[in-house]
Amino acid sequence: MRQIWMFPRNKRRMMPLDTALIMRAMIVASELGRSWEGQQGSQNEFARLLEEYGLKDSSENGLIDLNSGGPRTYEAQLRGLGLIYKNDAGNLELTQAGEDMVSLTNVAETFQFQVLKYQYPSQYSMGRNVDIDRSIQIKPFLFLMRLASDPDINGLSDKDTIVPIVFGKTERSFQNCKNKILDARTQGIASVIPDDSSIRTAKTINNTFEERLKDLKDIANTFNNVLIGSGIANRRDINGETRLFPRSALYDLIREVSLTPMTDFLSLPGMQAIRHYGRRRGARRDNRRTNILQSAPELLTIQEVIMQNFIQQVALPASHAEIDEFISRMTREYHLRRDTVFSTLQPILSNTTQYAGGRLIELSRGGTQHANEFEHAITRVFSNEFGYQAEHTGQRVRPAGRIGGYCDVFVVEFDRNCCGIIDAKATDRYNLPHDDYAKMVQTYIPNVQELYGNRENVELKFVAYISHLVKDEAVSRAQQIYENKGIPVVLCSVYGLNGMRETADYQGHPEAVTDYFSSNSVVLVS
Predict the structure, then answer these.
(1) Which of 483, 501, 482 is nearest to 491 (CA)?
(2) CB-based burial label for 282 (10 Å; 0-12, 13-18, 19+)
(3) Are 327 and 307 in contact (CB under 8 A)?
(4) 59 pLDDT band (50/70/90 cuts)?
(5) Long-range residue pairs from 475-482, CB within 8 A, at least 24 positions apart, any chain
(6) Closest Cα to residue 303, out of 21, 115, 1, 497?
(7) Strand 233-238 to 92-94 pairing
(8) How far apart are CA 43 and CA 59, in angstroms?
(9) Are 436 and 405 in contact (CB under 8 A)?
(10) Nearest 5°: phi and psi at 243?
């Protein structure tokens, strides 16, 4: 039996989002898990998908070779982390944590939780090709973080990590490992590692001691890279040596896992142990009736995931603060590098006017289903691009006892203490019907003073209607509003608005927009 730790080395650095997308590829290639054990065709298809979606390391040059064992190593890695398991037929099923990864739910947190829970013994460690001694009962990644946190050790180098790989048998091995790490730092690693069978496996039985030390360092590097890639640990320079330290943001998670009992793979029935091992954070049991997905997940690159999230979560045009918050959110949720997120967004950020304009056109003809989104988008144009203080007021409720409401958007130009109100119409062709005329004359214009707040002597300079396209018959009714209230009326198509957005004279110059919108009794912006 193997007397030292082991972790599959098919990827140099496992990262949460990479792992989730790799799992998706495995599910698709294996026909929702139903075709894996002994199915070289499915395994070759998995390898091809990793290549196609940019999910393999550049060092994995042979992975797409026919009959490659690489896919089986990936499966072993995911199984060891409690994300998937083999059922009695040898095919793949997902644990609760695995389901969360595939659905891209709490990806970084789920992955970090499973890495810290990684344990010996497990289904993986007791496998025929691994066969780690059953007396080694430990959560190795958690044990490494405990050592790295010790003030006397002050972080772990790759060379330091060799010690627990050889001597970390249970949690009670802590003091012995600590002493040997400190001794190795003064006397050399070879002075504390025994040159005997305990550091040799069936594959390395004939290796020299120096060769075996090199292999042990590779194993240590693998463990440390998993901790770095998952976001559990960071590297810092200590007196010219690079060492590993737990990230302070993960202290609570590390403590939680340290208080969680290990799964008893030696006594529990196989499937029960596996399902227990793969329970999601906070779950007390796994009551799912089926552990197989009913439909194939979408295959994506990392860049496509970032773009999808951006489109769903960030309304354009976006402020610098909103973009920065999105990038920070991606680093938290997926443990992505900030420069990776930023570079992926460059096509949008370098031409945000075009992307925002396309979205405006789409929303402007979306009908009631997208009316609220269109109102918010108009608010953002006047705030982020034209430079007004803009507020979405369409959903605000008037004080008790007062009937009617407010126009969709209220914009203020501070320097000249003037304002405008905007009615956003998400319809294909807008004709300013009588009901809208009545609301503007009887409700929106009279009620606008309630939006002034503490401002005094504010002048309402224009009212505007913005839609996809504006029909000719809207002009006569707009003229009636002007004649009734003496306030200029703007009839603006979204194409005309986009034209203004692309004009430098209006960008960040609300006074220029106000002057244009109030330049005539009825202003057509087409």
Answers:
(1) 482
(2) exposed
(3) no
(4) low
(5) 475/522, 475/524, 477/432, 477/433, 477/434, 477/437, 478/432, 478/522, 479/521, 479/522, 480/437, 481/437, 481/440, 481/441, 482/521, 482/522
(6) 21
(7) unpaired
(8) 19
(9) no
(10) -130, 160
Closest by Cα among 115, 184, 121 to 144: 115
Q: How far is CA 273 from CA 95, 122, 124, 266, in A?
A: 11, 9, 12, 9
pLDDT, tens only, 365-406: 889 888 998 999 999 999 999 999 999 998 888 877 677 789
pLDDT exceeds 50 at position 66: no
- Relative to beta strand 459-467, strand 418-424 is parallel
DSSP state of 208: -
In the chain, how long is the greatest CA-to-CA distance?
A: 100
Mean pLDDT of 245-263: 95
Task: Could you list the beta-strand ranges (E) of 187-323.
Answer: 233-238, 241-246
Cα-Cα-Cα-Cα torsion 167, 169, 171, 175, nearest 10 degrees, comes to -20
Instruction: Give the pLDDT band of residue 65 (cuts 50, 70, 90).
Output: very low
Specify the length of the chain in residues. 526
Handedness of CA 58, 63, 69, 75 (dihedral sign): positive
Q: Are 394 and 406 in contact (CB under 8 A)?
A: yes
According to the model, what pLDDT value does residue 336 have? 93
- Beta strand 459-467 pairing with 489-493: parallel
CA distance 510 to 81: 56
Say if CB 152 and CB 181 are below 8 A apart: no
The CA distance from 139 to 146, in Å, is: 11
Residue type, 197: S
- Is the distance from CB of 361 to CB of 494 less than 8 angstroms? yes
Q: What is the DSSP string of 396-426?
A: --PPTT------SEEEEETTTTEEEEEEE--
CA distances from 16 to 60, 331, 386 (A): 19, 11, 40
Q: Is the pLDDT of residue 60 over 60?
A: no
pLDDT (mean) for 304-327? 86
Tokens 């370098």 belong to which residue? 350
- In angstroms, rounded to a whole number, what is the distance separating the alpha carbons of residues 27 and 297? 8
Are 375 and 431 contacting, i.e. CB atoms less than 8 angstroms apart?
no
Whole-angstrom Cα distance, residue 209 to residue 53? 41
Q: Is the pLDDT of residue 57 over 70?
A: no
DSSP-H helix ranges across 384-451: 434-439, 445-447
Integer Cα distance of 92 and 138 in angstroms: 26
